[in-house]
C-alpha cells in the first residue's frame, strides 16, 4: 500500500502521526476540563479549589462516567505517545504508522461521548479501534 494514497489529516507541516499526537494532547485536556466541570457541578466550587482530603466516590452517573473515561484515556495515551515518538525518532513513516495514528485519535474521540452517554458495546469497539491503532504503530517499529 502506498502511503501517499491514504487519506490523512495534518496540522501545518507536521506528519499525520505527529498531528494525531498533538490532537491527542488536546483531547486529553478536553477529557479533563469536561470531567472537572461536571464533577465540580456535583460537588461544588469549594471541592474544586480545596485539597480534596476527604473525597467521597462520585454519586452522579455522568460525573462518574466522565471521570472513568478520562482515566481510561490516561491509561492508553502514554503507549500511543511513546510509539509515535519512537516512530518519528526511527524515521518509520509507513501506511501502518499513518493508519495507526488515525485509528487511535478517531477511536479516542468517539469513545468519550459514547462513554458519557453510557453506550456499552460501541464504546468498546471505539476502544478496540484506538488500541489497534497503537498496535499498528508498534508493528511498524518491529517490522524495521
How would you describe the overall organization of this protein?
With 144 residues, this protein is mostly helical. It has a single domain, classed as Membrane associated eicosanoid/glutathione metabolism-like domain (Four Helix Bundle (Hemerythrin (Met), subunit A), Up-down Bundle). It is 76% helix and 0% strand. It is built from five helices and no strands. Helix 1 runs antiparallel to helix 3 and helix 3 runs antiparallel to helix 4. The longest helix has 29 residues. The radius of gyration is 17 Å and the shape is elongated. The model has no long low-confidence stretch (mean pLDDT 90).
Cα-to-Cα separation, first versus last residue: 16 Å
User: What is the succession of H and E elements?
Assistant: HHHHH
Q: Provide the β-strand percentage band.
A: under 5%
Average pLDDT, rounded to a whole number, is: 90
Topology:
Elements (H helix, E strand, L loop, with lengths): L15 H28 L1 H5 L11 H29 L5 H23 L2 H24 L1
List its salient traits.
144 residues; mainly alpha; Four Helix Bundle (Hemerythrin (Met), subunit A); 5 helices; elongated
Describe what is shown at a glance.
The protein is mainly α. It contains five helices and no strands.
Amino acid at each position: 500500500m502506498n502511503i501517499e494514497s491514504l487519506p490523512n489529516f495534518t496540522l501545518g507541516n507536521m506528519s499525520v502521526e505527529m498531528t494525531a499526537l498533538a490532537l491527542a494532547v488536546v483531547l486529553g485536556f478536553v477529557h479533563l476540563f469536561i470531567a472537572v466541570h461536571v464533577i465540580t457541578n456535583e460537588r461544588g466550587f469549594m471541592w474544586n479549589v480545596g485539597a480534596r482530603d476527604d473525597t467521597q466516590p462520585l454519586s452522579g452517573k455522568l460525573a462518574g462516567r466522565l471521570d472513568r473515561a478520562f482515566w481510561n484515556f490516561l491509561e492508553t495515551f502514554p503507549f500511543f505517545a511513546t510509539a509515535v515518538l519512537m516512530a518519528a525518532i526511527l524515521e518509520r513513516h509507513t501506511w501502518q504508522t499513518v493508519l495507526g495514528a488515525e485509528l487511535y485519535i478517531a477511536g479516542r474521540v468517539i469513545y468519550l461521548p459514547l462513554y458519557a452517554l453510557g453506550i456499552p458495546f460501541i464504546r468498546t469497539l471505539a476502544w478496540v479501534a484506538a488500541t489497534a491503532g497503537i498496535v499498528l504503530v508498534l508493528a511498524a517499529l518491529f517490522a524495521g
